[in-house]
Amino acid sequence: MPTDASETPLVLHGPLRRPRQMLADQEYGGHGSIHDDAIAEKLGFRAGPIEGPTHFSQLAPLLARIWGREWFERGCVSAHYQNMVVEGEEVRAFAELPRDGATRTRVWAEKADGTPVLEASASLGPQGAPSLLDERMAKLRAPETLVILADLHVGLRGAVDERVRMDMDQHMGALYPFSLAQKLAVITEPSPWYRDPTASPWGRAIIPMEMISVLVEHTSHLARFPVKGPVVGLFADQEIRLIDGPLFVGEEYVLRREIVALSESKRTESYWTRTRIFDAQGERQVAEMLLNHAVLKESYAGYADAAR
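^ that's the sequence the OP posted. Answer follows.
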């Protein structure tokens, strides 16, 4: 891809968008979540944030311009979330144009005032060069003391194979209290491919990448990972990789989860889960998601005493 004389990469960018908050009524573990304004404020945040993968939709038109239809079949976004966005704030997505033949590039999102929202790598096809989260995980140090996650270990797998699907009007449960149709009514980047089978190149409506996160996470309680609680958590890092995509509305899939890393920061304990998505027979892997669940230490009653 051509560059200017200084070899500065050319950058695509989308319009400013105001993503909508869909999780204000989210519940898990019998309580509300960080997306509830009152809970977020109690934990020191300005208001309940918009869910991170919402911003993946703003990346889609840019990456489709770079890689075309293949992006929806074999694309990967690997993101580190930097700053929360609340409803009403404007966000713009950016993507560097890769050189001819390159299958990885840099993408990011910013608020209107330049505040970073996320940094990410985007790539296409079979895994080759490490993704951004591959690089971040390689730098993780073993946690010194875990309290909330003391009963977890790397290699722990979900209790069962989970069978999931996403129909257009299916309510996605307490964790995601809305349907795909409701999301598509407010999605930042609408496409007929998400709704109309006759408009889709695959002859079926496809699930937007941001909603793959919902498909994977709405049954996560079935894994029965022994996380102590009640606690409040957030998504700190997330990667969605299509292997033999896209994923289709109304199609059944099988999920298999595994904890692949544990980490710790000053404010959080984290468990990194890789969820592999298979066809309805559980034989052919079609996608996967890597997610850093960061649980806030201060949301766990008696954390300091337990850590001592």
